[in-house]
Design a protein that fits this description.
The chain is of the alpha+beta class and about 140 residues long. The protein has helices spanning about 5-10, 55-75, 120-135, and strands at about 20, 25-30, 40-45, 80-85, 100-105. It has a single domain (about 5-135), classed as HIT family, subunit A. The structure holds guanosine-5'-monophosphate and zinc ion.
Length: about 140
């Protein structure tokens, strides 16, 4: 993808703070971290989002996320870690190249990632449950 910034970064064409690289992935420091140590896992092959990414790579990204999360947690002495992966603008995705956020969290850091849950009726739960099951 010629116009994809993460393709260029993943390929090494644009410098980045790389903390890990193998044949499939590059892991970089986010340029605007939620907290110091915030990493992004980028597949070197372009896929806009999880729906375009090969299933085997989704699995490999998850395994790598655990490895990076463990290293980040120790490196910055984090109290917790968020692993986040946004798909689509409605979900907060701003760069259309699949990436996994590994975000170190500290007690009381006031980083806002969670919103309050919605209240659904029993009927609404039943309806949405059946709709999802029908798509699996
Ligand atoms: P999204 O909102 O798409 O899930 O996350 C995109 C992330 O990429 C943001 O956290 C943003 O700070 C980061 N980002 C955007 N452009 C660059 C860049 O050129 N270099 C790095 N290292 N991070 C970037
Ligand atoms: Zn790309």
């Amino acid at each position: 993808m010629d116009n994809c910034i993460f393709c260029k970064i993943a390929a090494g064409g644009i410098p980045s703070n790389t903390v890990y690289e193998d044949e499939i992935f590059r892991v970089i420091l986010d340029i605007a971290p939620a907290n110091p140590g915030h990493c992004l896992i980028l597949p070197k092959m372009h896929a806009a989002d999880i729906f375009e990414l090969d299933e085997a790579l989704v699995g490999k990204a998850a395994v790598l996320a655990k490895k990076i999360a463990s290293a980040v947690k120790k490196a910055v002495k984090a109290d917790g870690i968020n692993i986040i992966q946004n798909n689509g603008a409605a979900a907060g995705q701003s760069v259309s190249h699949y990436h996994v956020h590994v975000v170190p969290r500290f007690n009381g850091d006031r980083v806002q990632l969670n919103t309050e849950g919605k209240a659904l009726s029993d009927e609404e739960f039943a309806k949405i449950k059946e709709a999802i099951i029908a798509e699996l």
